[in-house]
Every structure is written in structure tokens, then in C-alpha cells.
Amino acid sequence: MPLLCINLLVLVLLPLSLSCDSQNLPIEVQQNFLALVRTHMDNTRENITDELQNLSCLELKHKPPNCTTEKADFVETLLIQACEMQSLRLQQTKNLARFVQMSIDCPCPKKPTKDPSVKSQKRMARNPGKKQIKKLCKAKAILSCMTLCYEKLNTLLMDA
């Protein structure tokens, strides 16, 4: 029961912690995408595809946020996607996450620092290659959702 309460609390507070006070309008986000982000998305997609060449990604348990809802907040959704991508700590996605944050003028919130008196207990990965593949698959899913958000934003702004 306590785990359920904690999970619900995280779901309620997470959007608040990731919201930002960006003054960028959707048109500015679109212009930044066309000028900077698109190239990094293409490069990242190519790098991930090369890494996952003969491997298939299973369906993820956790679906990345997307812009398919009627009142999707594109800036907030893109920030959440960029922060999730950054948290993967993959060399292939580092630049893209940074450029998306710069393009929407919102950094990812900093994680609280750990108390130095508490020693962290890292577990050794049983199969580091398997973990890397899982991260790459998650990055691929986030990248797909991010691409859809930008495409939907472009479509909305073209119709306006």
C-alpha cells in the first residue's frame, strides 16, 4: 500500500517539477527545431539505428510522453522527453537532449545531491550489453515520440 501512495504522489508531482517558465512561443520552438534540432534528431536516429542494427526492441513497459492529446502542451512534453533522454546517459542522445532543452529555453530540473555520509551501493550489472540495448531501445521510443510532437507542432502552425 505505501508503494502505491508513493507512485501516485510521484505521478501528481512530476509534471509540476518538470514544468518551466519558458516564454518561448510554439512558433519559436518550431523555428529552433528547423534551425538546430532537426539535424541532431536525424543524427541521433541514425546512430541509434546503427547500434541496434540486427536487434529488435521489445515493447516498453513505460511509454514516453507524447503529443497526441487534444490539449497537448508541446513545450512541456518536449521537456519531459528531453529529460528522460538525458537521464539515459547515452553518448548518442546527450547532444539532442541538450539542444531540445536549449530550443525550448528550459533546462531539466537538477536532481538533489546525495548526502555524502551515505555510501551508495552500486550493483554490478550482470550483462552490461543488455542494459545498453535496453537504454537504446528506450531512446529510440522517446525519439519517435519527440519526432511526432515536432511534426504535430509544425502541422498546427502551418494551419494557423
Brief summary of the model shown:
This protein has 160 residues and is an all-alpha fold. It contains 5 helices and no strands. The N terminus is likely disordered.
Task: Describe, in plain words, how this protein is organized in 3D.
The longest helix is centred in the C-terminal third of the chain and has 32 residues, at 128-159. With 160 residues, the chain is mainly α. Helix 2 packs antiparallel against helix 4. The model is unreliable at 2-18 (pLDDT under 50). The radius of gyration is 17 Å and the shape is globular. Helix content is 64%, strand content 0%. It contains 5 helices and no strands. Residues 1-19 form the signal peptide.
Which SSEs are present, and which pair or pack?
Elements: H1 2-18, H2 26-51, H3 74-87, H4 91-104, H5 128-159
